[in-house]
Amino acid sequence: MTTPLIDPFQRAISYLRVSVTDRCDFRCVYCMSENMTFLPKKELLTLEELDRMCTTFIGLGVEKLRITGGEPLVRRDIMTFFRAMSRHLDTGALRELTVTTNGSQLHRFAADLVAAGVRRINVSLDTLDEDKFARVTRWGRLPQVLKGIDAAQAAGLRVKINAVALRGFNEDELFSLTEWCAARDMDLTWIEVMPMGDLGNEDRVGQYWSLKDLRRTVTENYTVTDLAERTGGPARYVRLEETGQKIGFITPLTHNFCESCNRVRLTCTGELYMCLGQEDMADLRKPLRDHADSDAPLQEAIRAAIGRKPKGHDFDYSRQRADGQVVRHMSHTGG
Ligand code: SAM
Ligand code: SF4
Question: What is the three-class DSSP state of 296?
């Protein structure tokens, strides 16, 4: 029996988020610039390398894998990887295999995801207005995403909607999105916009809609019960008694969640980020590629990386600047 991954602050690391591509068929304004330069193919971990990497983490006690990106479902042949990971569900080593997607390819892959053992997915959707959707995603089309959500539910997947809270953009849809999700038996989580990437001309502080405000509005209009549920992440949940649905708030800025952090993030090039909000990372691709016949050097590199997981991040908007900003796009680390 190997010793589990415990960081210097006695947090057990049981959750790995894996970005399988930096590419995407959308260009959401808060995530990517219009003209992105993507990584050359040889930089990316192959599907076989991703498998070896994830399998090694699972061997060290990771029980939950979330596949993300970029848009994970645009990576060629990605279902081969999902099918391969399902063997760890079969043995019980992995408790959950899940995905965060923009929904654009769900109509093609929903049934395959279910066949690979995926039970719940997160779909990112900030607005139900076609024009606004086209504006915020730049390249996305709402009907295609709605078709994907239909397909996912028809295939038996439990869908949670993630919406980035953007002041002056979807404030007016707080109730319509809530009711739409309730009618479809979907939970809804709001995410505070984070100071990621190169802000350029964009006013990230101006876009910031504090979830404290959002939550207050929810509380004024529904009967709200706080839920004790903790996922080891930045989300806090309430139940709306009127609709029965769960509403989540991901508040990296107004709430400090770091003390219970149980996760690390692997990029599509094999860099391990121990904290979403810090620059420190470990290159795991080298020990993986240099030692095709032994996983021991990779295991050692993973343990060394976890040994320097920082206590927390330094994001802070309180001075009306995006302090603690990390010059890295969310699509790189995987949201
Ligand atoms: N393409 C997939 C999607 O959109 O769901 C997966 C990757 S995306 C980077 C993961 C999540 O990060 C999405 O819910 C997206 O809205 C969120 N995200 C991207 N940039 C963000 C930012 N600057 N602040 C907060 N959330 C962000
Ligand atoms: Fe693509 Fe997701 Fe980023 Fe939007 S948030 S650009 S869908 S990776």
Answer: helix
| Ligand 1 centroid distance, CA of 188 (Å) | 14
Name the token pair of 68: 């993300």
Dist CA 146 CA 133 (whole Å):
12
CA distance 192 to 189: 10
pLDDT score at 325: 53
Number of domains present in the structure of the chain: 1
Ligand 1 mean position, distance from CA 288 (Å): 28
CATH of the domain at 151: 3.20.20.70
Distance, in Å, from the CA atom of 286 to the CA atom of 130, rounded to the nearest integer, reads 44
**Is 193's C-beta closer than 6 angstroms to any atom of ligand 1?**
yes
How high is the pLDDT of residue 255?
46
- Domain for residue 10, yes or no? no
The pLDDT of residue 330:
60
Tell me the residue ranges of DSSP E strands in the chain.
15-19, 64-68, 96-101, 120-124, 158-165, 187-192, 224-226, 235-240, 246-250, 263-266, 271-273, 281-283
Ligand 2 is surrounded, with C-beta below 6 A, by 24, 26-28, 31-32, 69-71, 102, 124, 330-331
For residues 316 and 29, which has the higher predicted lDDT (pLDDT)?
29
pLDDT computed for residue 131 by the predictor: 97
Alpha helices in 116-240 (DSSP H): 130-137, 142-154, 174-183, 204-207, 211-221
Task: Name the percent of the chain lying above pLDDT 90.
Answer: 75
